[in-house]
Design a protein that fits this description.
Largest sheet: 5 strands, parallel
CATH superfamily: HUPs
Strand order of the largest sheet: 3-2-1-4-5
Radius of gyration: 15 Å
């Protein structure tokens, strides 16, 4: 299977790629996270992933777009609009899953997935629904895996490897709520 794996950060990647490799799936990584705030945090996560992928010789493709709000657009959710955390998560999941599904379709992948499913702090039900909707919209398969049982071991491995480990999901809401 040719899989495009959306990656939120290098520490989350560790457990996901290990699980996929156990299934003989070697994913191509995809960075697209305009929701990550502030810019310094965005850069740290992106640069850590790039370095890890290079060191491990893992294929990585990037859509390097830092958003000044959660994302630009008519349905965007900004702090000034006082939207709820649930609304911001829905939108953040949607834009990243739609972009990943579109990229997977355009580049001839069989399916896509995301490392976000490793985090026990993510809303897996909502994320899965957004990914399935994106898959249907773009006519590509979505591969669901609950990677969350590997979360703690992936965090320990990241600590051991000296990878930058963030303290919040990425958006301004999660930063304020940490």
């Amino acid at each position: 299977m040719k899989l495009l794996l959306h990656v939120c950060c290098a520490p989350c990647l560790l457990g996901c790629i290990a699980a996929l490799r156990e299934e003989n799936i070697e994913p191509v990584l995809f960075w697209y996270n305009p929701n990550i705030q502030p810019h310094a945090e965005y850069n740290k996560r992106r640069d850590t992933l790039v370095q890890y992928a290079q060191n491990q010789n893992i294929s990585l493709t990037m859509e390097d777009h830092f958003g000044l709000s959660i994302i630009d657009g008519p349905q965007s959710c900004t702090v000034q609009q006082s939207c709820t955390v649930q609304q911001s998560c829905t939108y953040c999941y949607r834009i990243r899953m739609e972009k990943t599904a579109l990229m997977a379709k355009k580049q001839g992948f069989n399916a896509f997935s995301t490392t976000l499913f490793i985090s026990p702090y993510q809303n897996h039900k909502l994320l899965r629904q957004e990914a399935e909707d994106a898959a249907n919209l773009h006519g590509i398969n979505f591969l669901y895996r609950d990677f969350s049982p590997r979360f703690r071991s992936a965090q320990e491995e990241a600590r051991h490897l000296g990878l930058y480990r963030q303290k919040y999901c990425g958006c301004l809401f999660s930063k304020e709520n940490r």
